[in-house]
Amino acid sequence: MKIIARPPAFQYKKNHLLADSVPLAYLAERYGTPLYVYSASTIRDRYRTFENAFKRFPHTVCYSVKANSNLSLLKMLAKLGSGFDVVSGGELERVLHVSRKAAEKVVFSGVGKTAAEIDAALKANILIFNVESESELDLLAERAAKIKKKARIALRINPDVFADTHPYISTGLREHKFGVALSDVGDLYTRAAARKYLDVAGVSCHIGSQITTVEPFAKAMLRIAELVRALAANGHNIRYVDAGGGLGISYKSEDAEADNFEAKSSAYAHALHDSLGGLKVHLLLEPGRSIVAPAGALLSRVVVTKQNGKKRFVIVDAAMNDLLRPSLYGAYHEIVPVQLNQVLQMTKATSVVDVVGPVCETGDFFARDRELPHLHEGDLVAILDAGAYGMALSSNYNTRPRAAEVMVDGSGVTVVRKRETMKDLFRQET
Ligand SMILES: *Cc1c(COP(=O)(O)O)cnc(C)c1O
């Protein structure tokens, strides 16, 4: 059995799994488990690679905060010049907290923006609002008029394209709650242009997440380009096209090994650009997962192993409250041992197991019927590709304090979120 991790963020050296150059076994000893571990160098590399793929086109990368909203991570991306895509007032607060200046590169998406969230974004002078309905358009016009501040807007189009991803994270079909149907959008642009405090500046779309081919993006962009031309013909001054996020990663090791993020980003950039067919617009990009997912792992320790009838269970100290993706989407995450025993590897000592957490739900699992090297009580495992939608989706279910998060950078380690205590959990309760 071939075991590979996720170089350069996570790789084996002399049978020990390292994050950059720090052994995960050391991190587990020092900071406890479950523990989120991120590689700063990998995040920076992936951001730069993505950014570089678009260098020939006028553009701004607006990292999607919801993928991983840790303040240190946001600060690091802000320093690299990243803008941000936010979907709530809370995410906007996070961005403003790490960099007031980043506000000028903030894109505000989301189907249910409240008046308070809109006011906060107006006050912060964000780059653009992606408006998703007629009601939101009216509300935004009203709030902007009230404080006499012009709001730059794009309408989020629902391009009605199918993307082959999990139904929960596909967003670009007519029946989804997101955006405005192409058939209705002309009237909305006319309505928007008539409002004194709205600056009609763009068109946006986001068709979903974990999309692994460029075709759906290209198809959506063709429809957007056509719309931009029609809007221009009607006298609208469309300067921005927001292509959303959604670029997928390979969660299976055999695919991840063959992945080349540079080539993927470049193919994506060219597909978008070709579809726009020479339109003179500023591209906005909202990648989340593709920047941070492979840069993170969830480190966990085996608590108990047990045999129930024919099934062998490996029960680890992380659970669905720490990493929800397998439970929520049936998502696949590679699980690798932290200490590789060469002898075991050579003798192919593997077993087929379910790796599960201790939470009282049958849906609390990380892997089912997975062939893994023999794991014993006390062994450490790393659940890979957990940098995106991992900690961000965590909860306190079963009164489990949330995991700590550490950022590794070369040989340096920084705790970027402390492990929660029972006191933290009780704080708001009476
Ligand atoms: C979630 C989201 C993104 C990021 O998607 P990824 O798949 O993580 O790249 C971008 N834009 C919007 C509007 C989103 O909702």
Write the layout of secondary structure elements.
Blueprint: E1 10-13, E2 16-19, E3 22-23, H1 24-31, E4 35-39, H2 40-53, E5 59-64, H3 71-79, E6 83-86, H4 89-98, E7 106-108, H5 115-123, E8 128-131, H6 134-146, E9 151-158, E10 180-181, H7 182-193, E11 198-204, H8 215-233, E12 240-242, H9 253-258, H10 261-276, E13 282-285, H11 289-292, E14 296-308, E15 311-316, H12 325-329, E16 335-337, H13 342-346, E17 350-356, E18 365-373, E19 380-383, E20 404-409, E21 412-417, H14 422-426
Parallel strand pairs: 4-20, 5-6, 5-13, 6-7, 7-8, 8-9, 9-10, 9-11, 11-12, 12-13, 15-17
Antiparallel strand pairs: 1-2, 2-3, 4-14, 14-15, 14-19, 16-19, 17-18, 20-21
Bound molecules: pyridoxal-5'-phosphate.
Pyridoxal-5'-phosphate (PLP) binds next to helix 11.
Mean pLDDT equals: 95
Q: How many domains? A: 2
Query: What portion of residues is helical?
Result: 25-40%
> Given this structure, which CATH class of the largest domain is correct?
Alpha Beta
What ligands can be seen in this structure?
pyridoxal-5'-phosphate
Tally the helices. 14
What characteristic shape results from the CA principal axes? globular
Taking the sheet with the most strands, its summary is:
9 strands, mixed
Care to count the β-strands?
A: 21
Strand content: 25-35%
Helix vs. strand class: alpha/beta
Rg value: 23 Å
Distance from N terminus to C terminus (CA atoms, Å) equals: 53 Å
CATH superfamily of the largest domain: Alanine racemase
- CATH fold-level topology of the largest domain: TIM Barrel
Q: What's the architecture of the largest domain, going by CATH?
A: Alpha-Beta Barrel
